Amino acid sequence: MKTDSLREAGLTEGEIKVYLALTELGSSTTGPILEKCGIARSIIYLILEKLIQKGLVSYIIKDKTKYYQTTDPIKLLEYVEEREKRLEENKKEIENLLPQLRAKQIMSKTKEAQIFEGFKGIQTAHEFMYSKLKKGDEYFYLGIPAFQEEKYHLYWQRDHRRRIKEGIKCRLLFNKGTDQKILKNRNSFKGCNARYIPLDINTPAWILGYKDVIVIGLQSDKGIAIMIINQDIANSFKAYFEYFWIKSKPFKLQKS
């Protein structure tokens, strides 16, 4: 009998041997099982207990002796389905842990600077903030370019929903020339205040800042983000942002 499917289902070699031996033996004590599958006596009870926990083996007691037997083979399918469900749940938990794991990885690699490349790299640089900011904290963006690829707009909108759940606020200064619909959209998210920068300049690179972190990003064809972790540098960029923010005006949709 091919046992690859049982192995793929998550059973160990020992569990497979014991399970198949019991399938042929029917109700049995440990002696015949050991003879048939060659499992070491020291681990037979451990394997049987694991199979019982998985719902694949049961037992009865006769004359103070345990007799083991396999359950209905349909239990194998139920076990696989339950395992798939647990794996899917575990996958979601790991997905939620990714930003924290990436943040720890970044911190272990450098205390000062790190370079990220591509769309995924920019996401990683941005999401590092979730490891630093708590409910009620804030980040800012300065000089957000007028044009961004649609994939970026979709990402920022998804991230705003996450930001709201985390209770984090943000202030955004977009370059003039940015479509009003974009600022209207960003301001529709709770805790987000989006405005036009009070200068008629074109800055293809944007600046993200919070706590002791500054990220300089360029959303070109390949994309790049440079993260600097330094309190003095962060304070300097924050001062620039606050200067522009004071001179900016709350966003109002202009009729065309």
Structure description:
The chain is α+β, with helices and mostly antiparallel strands. It folds into two domains: 4-76, Winged helix-like DNA-binding domain superfamily/Winged helix DNA-binding domain (Arc Repressor Mutant, subunit A, Orthogonal Bundle); 102-247, Endonuclease Chain A (Endonuclease, Chain A, 2-Layer Sandwich), CATH 3.30.870.10. Helices cover 50% and strands 21% of the residues. The protein has nine helices and nine strands. The chain has helices at residues 4-8, 13-25, 30-37, 41-53, 74-109, 118-127, 150-166, 180-187, 231-247; strands at 57-62, 65-70, 113-117, 138-144, 169-174, 192-196, 205-210, 213-218, 224-229. A seven-stranded mixed beta sheet has the order 3-9-8-7-4-5-6, with helices on both faces. The chain has a two-stranded antiparallel sheet with strand order 1-2. The radius of gyration is 29 Å and the shape is elongated. The mean pLDDT is 88.
